[in-house]
Specification:
- The protein has 302 residues and is of the alpha/beta class.
- The protein has two domains: 6-203 and 213-224, Spore Coat Polysaccharide Biosynthesis Protein SpsA, Chain A (Alpha-Beta Complex); 231-298.
- The protein has helices at residues 16-29, 47-54, 72-82, 102-110, 138-144, 155-165, 188-200, 211-228; strands at 6-11, 36-43, 59-63, 87-92, 95-97, 119-123, 135-137, 169-179, 233-238, 241-249, 255-260, 268-273, 279-287, 291-298.
- The strands form four sheets. It has a five-stranded mixed beta sheet with strand order 3-2-1-4-7, with helices on both faces. A four-stranded antiparallel beta sheet has the order 9-14-11-12, with no helix packed on it.
- Strand 1, helix 1 and strand 2 (36-43) form a beta-alpha-beta unit.
- Helix 6 packs across helix 8 (211-228).
- The two termini are 14 Å apart.
- Mean pLDDT is 77; it is low at 233-302.
Length: 302
């Protein structure tokens, strides 16, 4: 298959000035063709945003506030169900799109990965490494059954760690979505989001996560990996402080070998084998007093 359309998923709340700036940037960087669309999510108690969006021809979900920012994963799932694109990308109302023709650049990148396993990280000026505006395929979302798992708060980190497992977290610096981060001048929407993050995620002012949330996040990612790679072969063993040597007969290339030092794959070592011989020897040196789990999965043909 080939990818053809990018759907931007944007939840907005009581930021009419920022929303207008975002809309202006969208129109200025797209050609009006069929290669992109926006799906919005807005709350019942935000009549100004509802009225502004009613003046445009966009798909819009209007619904209850529910648990506020804590319900953001649900909001993304609502928008994903309504979207018609085969590429789904998150964005915020504090985004300014700066790259003309960005949909085609994303589509060209996506067509390099016909299996649909990817997450592109565009240039956001700040926090690039966190992929705050995730960009994934409909194929991947359909296999998962959702775009965001509602048990976790940070949707972008969930999708980033999921893509990292398959070595498919890919930077796309040719596309700039400037994140005019509301946190630099906090409004009530941002402050409410912060309250949820402190209640659920953060352990201290350094931004470190609590152990409880880390375990929750890693477990959710592991479940998602299993959905995307249900036929992966798992070999488990324990080496206290050892040198691992094993031999595998390979029939399909390329492969990715992931070695985790705990059962939820929090820490990983990756080897990608691109050679085309039928027998491959792996020699790995690991120092660990934890169980070592070796998982063999195909990069292609998932």
């Amino acid at each position: 298959m080939s990818f053809q359309r990018v759907s931007l998923l944007v939840a907005t709340r009581k930021r009419p000035v920022r929303l207008k700036t975002f809309l202006d940037s969208y129109y200025a960087t797209t050609s009006g063709g069929n290669d992109s669309e926006i799906v919005f999510r807005v709350d019942y108690d935000d009549p100004e945003s509802i009225q502004m969006l009613a003046e445009h021809d966009f798909l819009t979900v209007v619904g209850p506030r529910r648990k506020g920012y804590r319900s953001m994963p649900d909001f993304y799932n609502e928008m994903a169900r309504l979207a018609t694109g085969d590429i789904l990308m998150g964005a915020n109302d504090d985004t300014i799109i700066e790259t003309p023709g960005w949909p085609q650049l994303i589509i060209e990148a996506a067509n390099r990965y016909p299996d649909g396993i990817f997450n592109f990280g565009v240039d956001t000026v700040m926090h690039d490494e966190n992929f705050p505006f995730f960009c994934v395929s409909r194929i991947m979302v359909d296999r998962l059954g959702f775009i965001n798992d509602d048990r976790v708060l940070f949707s972008d980190t969930f999708l980033l760690d999921l893509a990292k497992h398959f070595n498919r977290a890919i930077r796309l610096p040719t596309v700039m979505f400037r994140h005019d981060w509301a946190g630099l001048n906090p409004d009530e929407t941002h402050l409410e989001a912060n309250r949820h993050a402190w209640d659920m995620v953060f352990a201290d002012t350094t931004g470190a996560w609590t152990e409880e949330y880390r375990k929750l996040h890693d477990g959710v990612v592991a479940e998602a990996v299993a959905r995307l790679d249900p036929d992966g072969e798992v070999i488990a063993g324990i080496w206290n402080q050892g040198y691992i040597k094993f031999q595998l007969s390979i029939k399909c290339f390329p492969i990715r070998l992931a070695i985790a030092v705990d059962e939820i794959s929090r820490a990983r070592y990756f080897i990608t084998v691109l050679a085309e011989q039928p027998l491959v020897d792996f020699h790995l040196s690991l120092i660990s007093d934890l169980p070592v789990f070796i998982k063999l999965g195909y990069i292609l043909g998932l």
